[in-house]
Specification:
Largest sheet: 4 strands, mixed
Strand content: 5-15%
Number of strands: 6
Mean pLDDT: 75
């Protein structure tokens, strides 16, 4: 046990002290933070509260924009308090508005025709084409019309201007109810799946690189003279698991801070929270997925002659994890269909597929527990089998990597040395 802890400590310290690891650890959250800072600096909202109705339509650049309108339908009775009357001017007819446009008193004007309630369309006339101004102007007019159609009631306008909130209630007794907000329910599974895939593969690849490098430098032979193969493997796996958890914690913490600080820029509700069950299951499946693929990649590192060969073998190893990514649209649309169910139970795709299903629907608890049980059984088997690869006969093998060679060695069949 003491030897396992020694390997664990050494692996953790050596990994976190590498310049490449520290640079990646810092740059990944730093780049999106700089992007958000740039958006706030050059095009962010002036309003500090993402739930304020004035912040929904008014940006920092819109203050200098002066527009006019001709209301033939008589809908606009008054302007909302967040619209400056000097920047949104009423005209009696289109001739007056056109003259003001030509003299540059206004940048554009709207024509609200009498049949707007039947057609639902408004004409916007600009002096010059500008896609950004058109989009911003359209949102202002839309807010003014909606405000007046709701009887100039600011409270009702605030309610109807927010994204529709849907409470999903599942009647199946074995499932758990969860509230979901439609815009984020659409993006959540994509983000969760991609993040989990990147974290598992990145963390597991550290194991393969570590073993392959130590084998190439003949360090692993020295280690095996004083440490049992299983102690070496378990120490490395847990040590790099702690590295992965450290990396995950920092990245997710930075992401949470960016969501809170950039909520106004991204129009994120202030009370947005990820479902607690999704967070718990994501962490659990991340750990199991890491242990699974780290063990497999440790075997690859022990088998291949050098780091270059190990990198080329990675694509074959991670193929089962890529399948849920390629089929993610189908999994999201039909999470309870046969293929998504199989992928979420199959140990080599379960870490990604099951979390994707959990993020879009309430998965029966027996399916989650079955996936966890199968993953645990597979990890235990692989740890025992891969530790057998840390033998002199295997470490001295100079053959190119192949799935057949890997499986033969994994199941204890003899491998000829080169």
């Amino acid at each position: 046990m003491n030897k396992t802890l020694t390997v664990l400590k050494t692996e953790f310290i050596n990994t976190v002290s590498r310049k490449s690891f520290l640079i990646t650890l810092i740059l990944v959250p730093l780049l999106p933070a700089l992007i958000l800072f740039g958006i706030n600096l050059f095009g962010g909202n002036d309003s500090g509260d993402s739930t304020d109705t004035s912040g929904l339509f008014q940006s920092g650049s819109s203050a200098a924009l002066v527009e006019g309108y001709i209301d033939e339908a008589g809908i606009i009775i008054e302007l909302p308090e967040w619209i400056d009357p000097e920047t949104f001017i009423a005209f009696d007819n289109e001739e007056q508005a056109k003259a003001a446009l030509e003299s540059s008193d206004i940048q554009s004007y709207y024509v609200i025709e009498s049949d707007i309630l039947e057609t639902g369309s408004v004409r916007l006339i600009n002096q010059e084409f500008s896609p950004f101004t058109s989009l911003e102007s359209s949102s202002v007019m839309e807010s003014v019309l909606r405000y007046n159609l709701l009887g100039a009631n600011a409270e009702q306008f605030g309610v109807f201007s927010q994204p529709l909130y849907i409470e999903v209630i599942n009647l199946a007794p074995e499932t758990v109810d969860r509230d979901m907000s439609s815009p984020f329910a659409f993006y959540l599974p994509y983000g969760t799946t991609l993040l989990l895939y990147v974290l598992i593969i990145t963390s597991a690849s550290l194991m393969m690189t570590s073993v392959a490098k130590e084998k190439e430098n003949r360090v692993i032979e020295i280690l095996l003279s004083s440490v049992a193969p299983r102690q070496l493997l378990i120490g490395k796996i847990i040590g790099l698991a702690l590295v992965g958890l450290l990396q995950t914690t920092i990245w997710m913490g930075a992401g949470f801070l960016m969501l809170r600080m950039g909520g106004t820029t991204l129009n994120i509700p202030a009370n947005l929270q990820l479902p607690p069950d999704l967070l718990i299951w994501s962490i659990l499946f991340f750990l199991l997925g890491y242990f699974l693929y780290a063990t497999i990649m440790a075997g690859v590192g022990a088998l291949v002659p050098n780091i270059k060969e190990a990198s080329q073998a990675t694509i074959i190893i991670i193929l089962p994890m890529l399948i849920p990514l390629m089929l993610i649209s189908m999994i999201i649309e039909t999470p309870n269909a046969t293929l998504p169910l199989i992928l979420s139970l199959f140990p080599f795709s379960a870490p990604v597929a099951m979390v994707t299903r959990i993020s879009v629907t309430s998965v029966p608890i027996w399916q989650i527990l079955t996936a966890i049980g199968l993953l645990l059984a597979t990890v235990i088997f692989l740890v025992r089998a891969v530790s057998g690869m840390f033998r002199a006969q295997v470490l001295l093998t100079g053959k190119k990597f192949s799935v057949g060679l890997y499986l033969r060695t994994l199941f204890g069949k003899k491998t000829e040395t080169a």
